[in-house]
Amino acid sequence: xxxxxxxxxxxxxxxxxxxxxxxxxxxxxxxxxxxxxxxxxxxxxxxxxxxxxxxxxxxxxxxxxxxxxxxxxxxxxxxxxxxxxxxxxxxxxxxxxxxxxxxxxxxxxxxxxxxxxxxxxxxxxxxxxxxxxxxxxxxxxxxxxxxxxxxxxxxxxxxxxxxxxxxxxxxxxxxxxxxxxxxxxxxxxxxxxxxxxxxxxxxxxxxxxxxxxxxxxxxxxxxxxxxxxxxxxxxxxxxxxxxxxxxxxxxxxxxxxxxxxxxxxxxxxxxxxxxxxxxxxxxxxxxxxxxxxxxxxxxxxxxxxxxxxxxxxxxxxxxxxxxxxxxxxxxxxxxxxxxxxxxxxxxxxxxxxxxxxxxxxxxxxxxxxxxxxxxxxxxxxxxxxxxxxxxxxxxxxxxxxxxxxxxxxxxxxxxxxxxxxxxxxxxxxxxxxxxxxxxxxxxxxxxxxxxxxxxxxxxxxxxxxxxxxxxxxxxxxxxxxxxxxxxxxxxxxxxxxxxxxxxxxxxxxxxxxxxxxxxxxxxxxxxxxxxxxxxxxxxxxxxxxxxxxxxxxxxxxxxxxxxxxxxxxxxxxxxxxxxxxxxxxxxxxxxxxxxxxxxxxxxxxxxxxxxxxxxxxxxxxxxxxxxxxxxxxxxxxxxxxxxxxxx
Length: 647
Hints:
Layout: H1 11-25, H2 33-45, E1 54-57, E2 59-61, E3 87-90, E4 120-121, E5 123-124, E6 132-135, E7 138-144, E8 149-154, H3 168-178, H4 185-190, E9 194-201, E10 204-209, H5 216-222, E11 224-225, E12 255-261, E13 265-270, E14 290-294, H6 299-307, E15 313-316, H7 319-324, H8 329-332, E16 336-342, E17 349-354, H9 364-372, H10 376-382, E18 389-390, H11 408-414, H12 441-454, E19 458-460, E20 463-465, E21 473-479, H13 483-498, E22 503-509, H14 511-519, E23 525-530, H15 538-544, H16 563-573, H17 578-595, E24 598-600, E25 602-603, E26 606-612, E27 615-616, H18 627-634, E28 636-637
Parallel strand pairs: 3-14, 21-22, 21-23
Antiparallel strand pairs: 1-7, 2-6, 4-11, 5-6, 7-8, 8-10, 9-10, 12-13, 13-14, 15-26, 16-26, 17-23, 17-24, 18-25, 19-20, 27-28
Pfam families: SBP_bac_5
InterPro entries: Peptide/Ni-bd, SBP_5, SBP_5_dom
Protein name: ABC transporter substrate-binding protein
């Protein structure tokens, strides 16, 4: 999961329940769980809690128990004694080359990099366990016994950057806004099973669920919270949420916007009155006094700027660059350091995504033929210096990956869907085409030609054509920010497609335009990367469910509408045990892979980071993390340079 039951009670019972609730609320975040259990047991035995009563705790886990005890001081993977200070300068953390707003929650426009540091949520996870949630804005969490709601009590110390306390009304306002048509549709899809947020009292909010789901309490806790005053004018009128641009957000996070320039540079300053610095979940984090992002127009300019000393750390996503271009005098003399850090996020999926909304890609035999034309082994030798592993799964490099024959648990989910599925789903897990001897690209292309012929495509008059004499042509869309990495890959792929009589063209556009085309699903084939998750959940629904296929701006890039996939998604998000979740994920993996909706690329199990020697990181590494976020959150300067002021 990568970011609240109705009840009634007699008035007398309600008053006594309120007394116990107030007692419970006085338990601090660090109170031992045994004390809470005793309190809940006494109140329950006296009939003081209504039927929805929940066991209030400092942390929850989707499956099992949280790793850290109630009295923990900090996470194991941080340095609690890390020095504070200095200005961390970073480049584009993604494909973004400019920004035009501070609001990261709406569909139109490009938000400033790092703007998420201004917002916090009711809970936060730890990076060395899967699917846990520890109190952040909330100082206790109560899941109803019927699992149809979760209640959060807000830490009385929590306040926004304008000094206002964080209230239950703000939490409800955030939820209602994010799930409205004023926000990007991904939020409504993500929180679709949360029926509503209810203000219990000024410091307590309850999220009610449409049906029991072990992930939902964690999803509710992960929701970003912002003040209802964000966008409010002096006269009390309000700027519509989807029109908020450079109005500075009112959040409760550790940083504030200090300055920005030309839609390409932004600096954040640590909030001197940040309320949460002493929380166990924040000790050892947010160590930089300032964080500046400089956005460069392309990969070449970005890399040369790093080698010239313009910024402090580079996360390298291109294996060829890591070997051939991330080199030079400053690397040789130790001013710049290169390290690879193991991560356990799961590989996710990256590849050439096909848009099933186009008739050209609606035949599975055509899609499989396009997959057969991709020669990963050649690319890995010639371009990647052997730096990658081929993706054979939507959950590669995790225990959710399907392998071999289906297990009994997987078959229990797949058998009822047998009439809707390719019989190959019930055989060995599909593996991607190979060109290493004794295999060959020629053999793969011959198989592809046979599949295309079965689908009605034959070669004549210099091109592959269908019964209507229409040639097989399509466009591969990519943004210019990543073209430096993808162009040789696409060129090689187009060359192989040409041997089948297929004409593919490569078009690069800037980030802003490609976002608009994605929102309107205006592409034939495009390059996409979905990050992995050690606990797949609601994000899978957004990517693959039939109900999101026609929602503009949704993550269903394929336009996939499959009742069988919908059923497996339901099994996945409603799994009650880790074993059930694993069976559902593996069954889903088999069905998606046999659908050939994507030509899978590759993955690396490490983060490649180059950085200035003045930077340092904790000795104990996290397990589940994104490299850029890790640098910002948990690294520090051992000795700030003269250009890096310290307050």
